[in-house]
Write a structure and sequence with these properties.
Largest sheet: 8 strands, parallel, barrel
Radius of gyration: 19 Å
Strand content: 15-25%
Number of helices: 12
Helix content: 40-55%
Structural class: alpha/beta
Strand order of the largest sheet: 1-2-3-4-5-6-7-9
Number of strands: 9
Distance between the termini: 14 Å
């Protein structure tokens, strides 16, 4: 089982965005030492408690401060951008850190509708164009635009002998279908949608069409993972996440409650139902329990890699969760 990390640079209680970014760098270095396989960073806009807005910039910084771990975006929100510019950004990263770069692509807005309009700056783009954007991006990354393409003769620089791995990210069957028909890798976001992931991954594999860039389907899944030495401490971390997800649904921008706030909060019956539904998006417990949950879920998915997303009220408990899971799986640097 390969274990990887998606870090959204969460801004904890009494922390600044600068603190969050420093913690992302420390976490990348730590999980590399622990033996994790990939480290992805996210793109969100106008979200008060997540500092990750420009994965390309952060990845360049992380590459200079790590040695071996694969680095990638989880993911670049392609509908906002020119495929050529995205290809240039990631060809540059690949030239700087060859064989270590992943380009994860998303089609969600990554913020509210007002923010989306600001990102597009008045232009109009339809999500229906997304598959064609991905196809053009793949051609730019591999410098193989067909002669009849409107951009033929344009090259994404710097060119080189290798190209980033391309992953389509999604929490429904739409992105899985695009990944299958375009011949790319696929990552299911269980931390966003706790239901239906195994069926979506199965559909991706069954529908997969080999491409010049990938001969066989490759899939993984991302999930909230919270681990502690005791069940009591793990339940405390889960309660923090319960309240955070509830607040997120209520429009509080991903604010992270403290352990004290989570303990003191009284859920209404409706909120209790939301908590139970959201717990399908996470695994939590002691190291053995988390290992068994992830192993069983991986069998259900038919995958051999998990992308773990861990958000807690302190950096120490976040890092400790990754350490305990690494120990439970016997990872080695």
């Amino acid at each position: 089982m390969k274990l990887s990390v998606l870090d959204q640079s969460p801004i904890g209680p009494d922390k600044t965005p600068q603190d969050a970014l420093r913690e992302t760098v420390q976490l990348a270095q730590a999980v590399e030492r622990l033996g994790y396989f990939r480290f992805w960073v996210s793109e969100h806009h106008n979200t008060a408690r997540l500092a990750g807005t420009t994965p390309e910039v952060l990845l360049a910084h992380l590459g200079a401060r790590t040695q071996r771990i694969r680095l990638g975006s989880g993911g670049v929100l392609l509908p906002y951008y020119s495929p050529l510019k995205v290809a240039e950004n990631f060809r540059m990263l690949e030239a700087l850190y060859p064989g270590r770069i992943d380009l994860g692509l998303g089609r969600a807005p990554g913020g509210d509708m007002r923010t989306m309009r600001a990102m597009l700056n008045g232009s109009h783009k339809s999500l229906d164009d997304y598959p064609e954007q991905v196809k053009t991006l793949l051609h730019f990354l591999h410098d193989d635009l067909p002669e009849n393409h409107r951009h033929y003769g344009v090259h994404a620089m710097p060119t080189g002998p290798s190209a980033p791995e391309v992953w389509l990210l999604g929490s429904s069957d739409a992105s899985a279908y695009y990944a299958a028909t375009l011949g790319t890798r696929f990552s299911f976001a269980q931390f966003i949608n706790g239901y239906g992931g195994p069926e979506v991954v199965r559909m991706y594999k069954e529908s997969f069409r080999p491409s010049p860039y990938l001969k066989h389907p490759e899939a993984n899944a991302a999930i909230f993972a919270l681990c502690a030495e005791t069940e009591e401490k793990a339940e405390e971390l889960a309660a923090i996440m319960d309240l955070r997800l509830l607040w997120l649904e209520q429009g509080r921008g991903g604010e992270i409650p403290s352990a004290e706030e989570a303990r003191a909060y009284t859920f209404t019956p409706w909120e209790e139902r939301r908590v139970q539904a959201n717990r399908a998006r996470m695994v939590f417990g002691t190291p053995d329990k988390v290992r068994d949950q992830l192993t069983d879920l991986a069998r259900t998915y038919g995958i051999d890699e998990w992308i773990l997303v861990t958000i807690t009220d302190t950096f120490a408990s976040r890092l400790r969760s990754y350490e305990l899971i690494a120990e439970a799986f016997g990872l080695t640097a």
